Amino acid sequence: MRKLTTTLFAAAAILAVGPALAQNAPASGAAIMPPKPICNNPNALGVSRTVEIDTTGAPGFGFEHFKAYDFLRDKEVVLTFDDGPWPNNTPMVLKALADQCTRATFFVIGKHAGYYPDLLKQVAAQGHTVGTHTWAHQDLSNKSVEEAKAEIEKGIAATSISLGNQPVQPFFRFPALRHPPEVVKYLAERNVGIFSTDFDSFDFKMRKPDQVIASVMKKLEKHGKGIVLMHDFQGATAQAVPELLGKLKAGGYKIVHITGKTPVEPIKEYRDAVLKEMGGGLENARPMSSVIRDVQ
Asked: Domains in the chain and their CATH numbers?
């Protein structure tokens, strides 16, 4: 297991965030409502509407795999980012979203959440939705049900711990979008919604921001709307987001923000396992910037 880093990331580049998460923590089982944004950009892309999703029974979303629920209207877009949080790249994405007063959904890897809890707190504090994407980005179609269950639950636990023991949004995305039926059944028991995508940007294959922008805009023009899959882990994507958001605004697209009706709670045995692996003290740690600073 990689040791937790003490590197200070580029949080200074991010706009000021809202009140501390602890002050806005919902009661157990309560709906997760994002803080209201403060927007100083009169020409911002913004958020057209916020959609609350009841994830009872693990409904699936994203036409690449699931056809039952088409909640987007023409020209509406849900922005999603996988594999974070990650230094430099995630802060760039957050700043671009803040500049446009808009919101996205981040499907985070549990280990990455443990490496960079301060950064994950920035994601949540800015009102973005934080879903999960397993503990270590394992392809669950190659795992036993018990192994897959552990990957899912450790990812949920690590995300909750890294957010200061806050509830976690009940949204999950399978790595490689491979979802074995028996694992889908388990998510139904946990009432965790499954997100595929309407189209994949395939930004992980790209090295230039222009390629990412062209990929997303071309597919949006073809589909007219959609849940868009990108990766804040990827440098080219992080660099592309400011211009991409501008093109969405210019093209008349509107952003839909999603939030869950009822959070998912971590299971104790997996929480204990994650704490043991991630190291002690993380659940009660103050923000690193309030503990460590350069003095010369």
From this structure: 44-275 (3.20.20.370)
